[in-house]
Structures are given as structure tokens and as C-alpha cells.
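Molecular record:
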Amino acid sequence: MSAGSGMDQVINCFHKRPEAVARLICFPWAGGGSIHYARWGKILSAIEVFAVKLPGRETRAKEHFFQSMEQIVDEVISVLLPVLKEKPFALFGHSFGAMASFALAHTLKRVHKLEPIHMFLSGASAPYSEMRIQAPTRSNLSDEEFLQWMTRIGGTPPELLANSEVMKLFLPVLKADLCVVENYRCNRPVTPLLSCPVTCFDGKQDMPHDLEAWKDISSGDFTVQMLPGGHFYLKDASNEEIILDCITKYLETAEMDYL
């Protein structure tokens, strides 16, 4: 597989911006695709957006799901490592994607001595927090129980939940991602792994997450921003605007620090 084809297979970039001051690498929520974030590339004019496309969905629908976080991180690094050395990069992930963002940052720092200029983590407790460790597992629920849970957390259109054919395609992807995140383990950092700023976002009406525990991953500034809505608060247009304004502000000023 050539570097070009590997990149196109794993990364969705709607708007190539060679002149961008920084790149934003975005990881999907469990079961999610890359389109939601890829759209951000049009809005973030000074930032090139790389939306990660995982196996089992979109143009990779026929590929086998990944079984572990390590597989996800290894694949992303295999296609992105040369690119990440070119210019500053930041990470954004929601829920499952927040865990994947952290796992990627952890490996990049430990193995390749590369560090993001900012971590944007949304809708998730830190992986080593008690709240996260004690959370109930979902990947082993029956399809019926699973649909009930999805209905409760919201964010999926009811007409999709009611469509058995769509659910037959969607549930295996979602369960595979949840299985990956439920089996992902890491210890609370004794000393900060990173030095970049960390920004956490969350929905005020979502179930509580231990956002404060993310503070331990970095010696940089730590901020939390709560926005109205449930687990998929970031799909709301006004919330999305706030998130993108925040990303723009941080990454454009980070570029000045980087120079």
C-alpha cells in the first residue's frame, strides 16, 4: 500500500490546505464516521482537518473492525507520522474518540517524541478515572437492550433506531468500538505525559464524566467548557460554533508560540 493510498484510506480531508498553520486530527465517537468532522475543514480556514476513518464504515465498510486501541493507534501513526513532523497538530475526539486521541498522543510522545500543541477532549471521563473504570459495559448487551440505551442517550434519529435494516448494519460497528474502549486500560500518569494545553467539552445534560481527571495528562493549561445538551451536544449547530471558535482561537495563537 503506497503512502498516498494509505492516507486516503484512513484519513478523510475534504479541504486540503497546504498553507494551514496547523492540523486538527479528529477521532469519531463509537460507531461514528468521518464526515461530521471532515466538514469542519471548510469552516476552519487556517487549519487543515484530518478526520480519521476507521474500518467497518464508510468506504471501509468491508474491512474487519479493529479489536484493540493499539490497532487504531498503530494504523493512524503508520499513515500520519511523516505528515505530523511537518507542522503543528492538535487532536479532537468525542467519547470513544477522546480515548483514541489520548491513546494516540500517549504513543506519539513515548515512541516518537512528538507532541500535539493542544488536546480537545469531549464527552468522556479520563481512561484511568474511577468513574470510567466503574462504568457499566455496553458492548455485551443484547440488541434490544442496546437500542433502549441508545434511545436514552439520544443523538441518533428515532427513525433510524426504528429501522431494523439500518440497525443491523450499524449495531456491529458501534458494539465493536465500545468493546475496544471498554478493554482499553492505562494507568494514571504519575508525572504529566504532555506539556500542551488540554480543553474538555461536555454536555450539561449528559451523564456525569470525570473531566477533572484529564488534568493529569499534561502540565499545560487545563480548561473545561460545559455546553447545553446531552451526549451528542456537539451536533447542535450553536454548540458546534462555540467549539470551532475555541479551536480556532487556541490553534491560531499556538502557532505564534510555536514559531
About this structure: The chain has one domain: 3-254. The chain is about 40% helix and 15% strand.
